[in-house]
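Morning, I've got a small favour to ask if you have a moment. It would help a lot if you went through both lines with me. I owe you a coffee for this, so here goes:
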Amino acid sequence: MSTGGSEGLFAQKTVEITDDVLQTYKNQGGFDLLGRTKDQIRTTEQVNAALKACTDLKLDGLVIIGGVTSNTDAAHLAEFFAEAKCSTKVVGVPVTINGDLKNQFVEANVGFDTICKVNSQLISNVCTDALSAEKYYYFVRLMGRKHSHVALECTLQSHPNMVILGEEVTASKLTIFDITKQICDAVQARAGQDKNHGVILIPEGIVESIPELYALLKEIHGLLKEGVHADNISTQLSPWSSALFEFLPPFIKKQLLLHPESDDSAQLSQIETEKLLAYLVETEMNKRTKEGTYKGKKFNAICHFFGYQARGSLPSKFDCDYAYVLGHICYHILAAGLNGYMATVTNLKSPVNKWKCGAAPMTAMMTVKRWSQNCGSTSIGRPAIHPATVDLKGKAYELLRQNEQKFLMEDMYRNPGPVQYDGPGADVKAVTLCVEDQDYMGRIKKLQEYLDQVRTLVKPGCSQDVLKAALSVMASVTDVLSTISSSSTSGQQFA
């Protein structure tokens, strides 16, 4: 096994896994054994270094553990190895706290259950304190990258007063001022019931969902790539972005000027959006107080970022079981000589003995996003596994919408307690996992059973009526499925 992340692989830093070595790390997480670096295998130099390492070490398989970016790299690496006639097979494993590596084959990611359970306990503790002091609004920012899966799950587990989901912001094209007004109106409504406290969750990726902030970030990142020094960027922004940049408080300006991550996204963990929103809400509430439209107590905000302390937790029982099973599947994929596959487990909301193990080709999860920079020209992107957004038509979001008014006004705080390894709390699964009906391969199997029944009923010797009915129904089904299939493919390709 290579240690020190992808750069450890390039440098051929390895350790042999024995029972003694593993004993200290079993069910403990393990990234402190693996190590992490700038986790990408993408450039020609990096890909060739990986090829050389795998060839020199005579590896049968290379297992890449990570989220959408790591598994996209794994898929491209598998193809490169095959073309280079390298005997090393590449296998991917869905591991990311962000919970955004989801598709018809992958129901959940290792790490997501743990971070949501740990965060939910921390949020619940803050809720209890808010209810005790009755004078503070807590703005809590959560990890999760661009999409809001962690924030949604933690809301459904701990019932804070409010959550701002990035997907809602994107769908409604909300500006930073729209969000500020939304929070201020909530504060004012609660003050009307003599409640001057509350807890508001903010996903770290919301900064990339707010249109004007995202446009500003893109301009800054473009200038940084051109070699413009951070101190000089403010003078080279477009008029609109410059006006927004000058409006922002100094601490946010400094954070927006940070260099982007290896996947070109902003350093979201370093951008204190919760402090920005608290600052803007306080400014607006003071203004309303002066105007006489707000008559509640003075607004007081306390800000938190629940990040690395949750990410570094001991894994939950679910994540231990899930990772253990995925490890076994990786062995079987490699023993079968398969290349470019991801280990998968479905039916995860059921007990472990009902889980269904499998492997899916990573290419089946990849799409090519196209976009046009100028009229008449089309740019085609690199095939990639794209992060899944929170489904605003899904059952988990519907559950939030059904309860959001109660959460806002009635202080229905819920404390699930710490991560459990035994007893009734040990086997509790993520709400978002349990409410969605995700058995994709199970439903395909059911369809095959129906098709087999049709073949049995419609064969030489069947009546004319049966044949006519079958032809009519199958023609209609084929037309409908062709239409749906072409529109969904178009939506993926040109997103």
